[in-house]
Design a protein that fits this description.
Blueprint lengths: L1 H30 L4 H31 L4 H8 L2 H26 L1
């Protein structure tokens, strides 16, 4: 039901939010000694997590606007494969761009 889906949503938000916080903390700790490349990588990862998680809010809004506001629509919208795939795509793109930037900096 809706209570179960809300619990799952809260758990996902806590984990992704924790990842974003950790990325920001690690990015800030890397910038203090002047390691700009490592800081940029951590900040980019945090941004990718936040953008990927934000797509779940989008799928919830679209699902309720197109269908209705029932518990079933909420559950299906929250667990939509597209929102999880977007999180994975954002993370993969982030890691790809970090690798490209590192390769350019070392050559």
């Amino acid at each position: 039901g809706e209570a179960g889906a809300a619990w799952v949503a809260a758990a996902v938000v806590a984990r992704v939010g924790g990842g974003v916080r950790a990325s920001i903390i690690l990015g800030l700790s890397a910038i203090r000694p002047g390691d700009f490349a490592r800081s940029r990588a951590w900040m980019t990862l945090g941004y990718a997590l936040a953008i990927g998680a934000g797509t779940q809010v989008f799928t919830l809004g679209v699902g309720e606007a197109v269908f209705d506001t029932s518990a079933l629509t909420f559950d299906l919208s929250l667990g939509a494969a597209a929102s999880w795939m977007m999180l994975v795509i954002c993370l993969l793109l982030c890691l790809f761009f970090i690798a490209v930037i590192r390769r350019r900096e070392t050559t």
